[in-house]
Design a protein that fits this description.
- The protein is of the alpha+beta class.
- The protein has a single domain, classed as Phosphoribosyl-AMP cyclohydrolase (Ubiquitin-like (UB roll), Roll).
- Helices cover about 15% and strands about 25% of the residues.
- It has 3 helices and 8 strands.
- A 4-stranded mixed sheet has the order 2-1-6-5, covered by helices on one side. Strands 3-4 form a two-stranded antiparallel sheet.
- The longest helix has 10 residues.
Length: about 160
């Protein structure tokens, strides 16, 4: 790995898809989409992005780090709330442009800044017309967001 990049770039499709070289394909903005699921249940907890530094720190520390597109800053999940994500496993998809992280929740056992276990706590009804209300799924709050974050503006929610 060079100073310019922490991870190798692989242009050979066969090597990328069938080889054993970890060569994440970051997008034009230097980001990689990341899906996080709960180790115990398999429930999707959240979706976010990592840049090279966030990915390297996640691998090195065993705790999930992300790149905030809104704040344009690196952040460790739980640095404010104490609800960190301890990595159990990291997988990369076939063309190495999406990560799947399986993690254990710490702290209050909530991943979402709203205090819920998952960021995906609302469902969309099938067969409904546009504008039908969402329904709640596992919507119980595990902590009070106002007590943890104070200002819940998008720039302060992690």
């Amino acid at each position: 790995m060079t100073e310019a990049g922490r991870f190798p770039k692989v242009d050979d499709k066969t090597v990328l898809e069938e080889g054993d070289v970890f060569a994440p394909a970051f997008d034009a903005h230097g980001l990689l989409p990341v899906i996080v699921t709960a180790a115990g249940t398999g429930e999707v907890l959240m979706f976010a992005h990592m840049n090279e530094e966030a990915l390297a720190l996640s691998i090195e520390t065993g705790e999930v780090h992300f790149w905030s597109r809104s704040r344009k800053a690196l952040w460790r999940k739980g640095e404010t709330s104490g609800n960190t994500l301890r990595i159990v496993e990291i997988r990369i998809d076939c063309d190495q442009d999406v990560l799947w992280v399986t993690a254990e929740l710490t702290g209050a056992g909530a991943c979402c800044h709203t205090g819920r276990i998952s960021c995906f706590y609302r469902g969309v009804p099938f067969g409904s017309k546009a504008g039908e209300p969402l329904f709640e799924v596992h919507a119980e709050r595990h902590f009070d967001p106002a007590a943890v974050y104070g200002d819940l503006s998008p720039k302060r929610k992690r």
